[in-house]
Amino acid sequence: MNETAHSSTLPAQATAARDRSRFWSFLCAVLFVPAALAAGVLALASERASRCLTYGEQCAPGLPDWLFPWGVGLGAVACVIALAAPVAQVRQVALAAQVLAECAALLVILSHA
Of 17, 53, 77, 99, whose CB neighbour count within 10 A is largest? Predict the structure, then answer.
């Protein structure tokens, strides 16, 4: 009976040891700010964006502006869920949602280039 109880806990412990979703979620959250700054610099370095900023010409709308705060907000909520959830599958889904939301926010910045 002890062998059965001991062998049933081994896969759960091995899965918990291999699950690095909390680390990746924290790393994605930390690296989002430099990525947003780099995307902003790239957007401002384009000819269209600099002409729009300087002369008010060639100002074409990018993606909707409401998408950026929603992406950042959803990414922050998903990050908190990924860091706090006790179940590995929930953390992995939250990490995927966080990465997608942060990518959407970065795409809004790049769409104005």
Answer: 99
Q: Choose among 110, 103, 109, 92: nearest CA to 31.
A: 103
Quote the pLDDT of residue 60. 78
Contact 110, 39 (CB under 8 A): yes
Give the torsion sign (CA, 19, 30, 101, 47).
negative
Kindly report, residue by residue over 55-68, the tens digit of the pLDDT: 888 787 888 889 99
Cα distance between residue 67 and residue 74, in whole Å:
10
Q: Can you say whether the dihedral through the CA atoms of 70, 62, 33, 29 is positive or negative?
A: positive
Are 43 and 112 spatial neighbours (Cβ–Cβ below 8 Å)?
yes
Indicate the pTM of the whole model.
0.79
Model confidence over 67-89: pLDDT tens digits?
A: 999 999 999 999 999 999 999 99
Do 112 and 59 form a contact (C-beta atoms < 8 A)? no
